[in-house]
Amino acid sequence: MTLAKRRLVWDLGGLLLLAVLSPQMARAGESVLDARVDAMLGRMTTEEKVAQLTQISGDLESGQVTPALQEMIRAGRVGSILNNKDPRQIHALQHLALEGTSHLRLPLLFGYDVIHGFRTVFPIPLGEAATFDPALVERAAAVAAREARAAGIAWTFAPMVDIARDPRWGRIAEGAGEDPFLGSVMAAARVRGFQGADISAPDRVAACAKHYVAYGAAEAGRDYNSVDISERTLRTVYLPPFKAAVDAGVATLMSAFNDLSGIPCTANRFILTDILRGEWAFPGMVVSDWQAVGELVNHRVAATPADAAREALLAGVDMDMVSEHYARYLPALVAAGRVPMARIDEAVRRVLALKLKLGIFDRPYADPAAAPATWLTPENRALAREEARRSLVLLKNEGALLPLAKGPQPIAVIGPLADSRVDMLGSWSADGRAEDAVTVLEGIRQAVSPGTRVLHAEGCAIEGGSTEGLAAAATLAREAGRAVLVVGEAGSMSGEAGSRAYLDLPGHQRALVEAVHATGVPTVLVVMSGRPLTLTREAAAVPALVEAWFPGVEAGHAVADVLFGDVSPGGKLPVTFPRTIGQVPIHYDAKSTGRPADLNDRFTSRYLDESNDPLFPFGFGLSYTTFAIHDLRLSATSIAPDGSLTVSVDATNTGRVAGDEVVQLYLQDVASSVTRPVRELAGFQRVSLAPGETRTVSFGVGPRSLGLWNRDLHFVVEPGEFKVWAAQSSVGGIEGSFRVE
Question: Which domains are delineated in the chain?
Answer without folding.
Answer: 36-55+116-358 (3.20.20.300), 373-580 (3.40.50.1700), 627-740 (2.60.40.10)
